[in-house]
Amino acid sequence: MERTTVISPADIKNQLAHCQAVARLLARQSPEPPLAFVDTYGCQQNEADSERIRGYLKQMGFAFTGDEEQAQIIVINTCAIREHAEQRVFGNVGALVHLKRRHPDTLICLCGCMVQRPEAAKKIRESYRHVDLVFGPHALWRFPEMVHQLLEARGRTFSVEDEAGSIAEGIPVVRQDRVRAWVSIMYGCNNFCAYCIVPYVRGRERSRRPEDILAEVEQLAAEGYKDITLLGQNVNSYGRDLPQPTDFAALLERVNAIPGDFLIRFMTSHPKDATPRLFETMARCEKVAPVLHLPFQAGNDRVLQVMNRRHTRAEYLEKIRQLKALIPHIVLTSDVIVGFPGETTREFEDTLRVLEEVRFDALFTFIFSPRPGTPAASMDDPMSREDKLANFNRLTALQDQISEEKHAAYVGQTLRCLVDGTSGDQRFPLTARTPGNRLVRAAGDPASVGQFRDVKITGANKWSLFGEIV
Ligand code: SAH
Ligand code: SF4
Ligand code: F3S
């Protein structure tokens, strides 16, 4: 097996020295703390990366602003999962050309999955000349060094080489939330689902050492975090690549043993690697939230095979059956792609049947988007956009109905919920989450934000539950 490159503590220390150097340079320019604007697209993995970018920026002396006009540095952390995600980035970055004219000294940085795609990097190089710094996920750990270089010698820097990927511990973090936290447990993906760009832009699977993960969770629990989500593209293959191999169930058990009143969630799980051992561990560990996000993508075996998902519909349904037997109140969510190349409407209807059988609490639905360089992008795709949309609408209509029915069944129950924020709504000024992570709009005292509270569910619609703190 390929050995994972581990970035040494000395290398990170060196990056922190670059942060100090940047701080000194900027302090010479103005006594006010410089401001940074960070914008994040894509999944929680990108959110977690942005927390590290903010951590580095803070070490460079930056404070944060939500206003691009005020910022000395703008960082846009991008996503490549669908074409639409990229179009949004290009639209917003294109608009920054005017800002750059007004403020030529503002550094504009683009990072994340999109720029790791050679075609996208080329487009930025040629047509978005106001962008100063471009770096992919592999180079994130060297962000301070790149900023330092740019400040010393103006020019443009691109750091988007293709790599298998590395692991860097000890990068500072500025978290966005006081109640919920993300903890990456592994990076990359080895699965190469035929439609998916992630393995190309995030490199191969590599796991953090359990000790490093446990130390991070311990600290979060000590700081009072109540909801901790373990992140990876496929957490179920955690630990296989470590010098002392372990597995995700063993990690869950160890995280569960950390003292404190907090919930553990994790995502994402690949059905082919979700085992009865995992389900039993979930059932046994009292801190592990009764919820599983288990993407099935398509309900037809031929389509699943061409997608390279390496499981059948029957295998998927069997896993769901095992899980429901162990945790009857489990909340289930999933991802589905409509309009994969060659999927007929009849094959698509197998997806509807999976919905009817499993009755997911919520579903994330996507229309297939060809990603250059993936096998699916060059497959024959005869179905029209209109027909795909019609199928997509059938799918969401069915799921809306199921979600509404499932939510209605909560009315009258009292659940221990995590109050995680406030909303502008006068009648329901709080937001809370059930143990299975369903959203509750709740009436009650704003002082309960950040606490677990019993919430009586008084109403529901297809999107959320309504209730009051008792
Ligand atoms: N690692 C996760 C998924 C990450 S991407 C997993 O395997 O479950 C999140 C979701 O985006 C995927 O589950 C899939 O449903 C969707 N997706 C990925 N590539 C896509 C594409 N090219 N077009 C449409 N949807 C896509
Ligand atoms: Fe993409 Fe498949 Fe990997 Fe998920 S498991 S990130 S869908 S290749
Ligand atoms: Fe997007 Fe990269 Fe996540 S492509 S979905 S930000 S891993």
What report would you give on this structure?
With 470 residues, the protein is α/β, with parallel strands linked by helices. The protein folds into 3 domains: 5-166, Methylthiotransferase, N-terminal domain (Rossmann fold), CATH 3.40.50.12160; 180-408, pyruvate-formate lyase- activating enzyme; 414-469, OB fold (Dihydrolipoamide Acetyltransferase, E2P) (Beta Barrel), CATH 2.40.50. 36% of the residues lie in helices and 21% in strands. It is built from 13 helices and 21 strands. The strands form 6 sheets. A 6-stranded parallel beta sheet has the order 3-2-4-5-6-7, sandwiched between helices. Strands 17-18-19-21-20 form a 5-stranded mixed barrel. The protein is globular, with a radius of gyration of 23 Å. The model has no long low-confidence stretch (mean pLDDT 96). S-adenosyl-L-homocysteine is lined by residues 81-82, 195-196, 198, 233-234, 268, 270, 295, 297, 335, 337, 366, 368-369, 371.
Provide a brief overview of the structure:
The protein is α/β, with parallel strands linked by helices. The chain is built from 13 helices and 21 strands. The termini are far apart.
